[in-house]
Amino acid sequence: MMSKSLGLSAGRPSESRKAAALKAISDDKGSMVRVNFELDEAEHLKLKIFAAKARRSIAEILRELIDKNIPA
């Protein structure tokens, strides 16, 4: 009997990439906390379009703005 190993497994394929990305972020900055605030719909749409055009997440955009504009 032939055994085929396809390298397939159950689960979400993006999970390992997501875990690696989160680990890289947390190693650099320490533990993360969640921040919530409100934007009006127009501001949110503007931010979402900007992030999509840059092929980055909204969180990445906001972290960069904080790092560049708020002194340590």
Protein model, in words:
This protein is an all-alpha fold. The protein has a domain at 37-72. The chain is built from three helices and no strands. The longest helix has 16 residues, at 14-29. The N and C termini lie far apart (64 Å). Pfam families: ParG (PF09274). InterPro entries: Arc_rbn_hlx_hlx, DNA_partition_ParG, Ribbon_hlx_hlx. It comes from Acidithiobacillus thiooxidans.
Give a brief rundown of this model.
Helices cover 58% and strands 0% of the residues.
Q: What's the β-strand tally?
A: 0
| Alpha-beta classification | mainly alpha
The gyration radius over C-alpha positions equals 18 Å
User: Beta-sheet strand percentage?
Assistant: under 5%
Order of secondary-structure elements:
HHH
Unreliable stretches covering 5 or more consecutive residues: none
Tertiary shape: extended
Q: On the 0-100 scale, what is the average pLDDT?
A: 84
What oligomeric state do these chains adopt? single chain
Give me the number of helical elements. Answer: 3
- Characterize the largest beta sheet: strand count, sense, and whether it forms a barrel: none
GO biological process, one term: regulation of DNA-templated transcription
InterPro entries: Arc_rbn_hlx_hlx (IPR013321), DNA_partition_ParG (IPR015354), Ribbon_hlx_hlx (IPR010985)
Protein name: Chromosome partitioning protein ParB
Pfam families: ParG
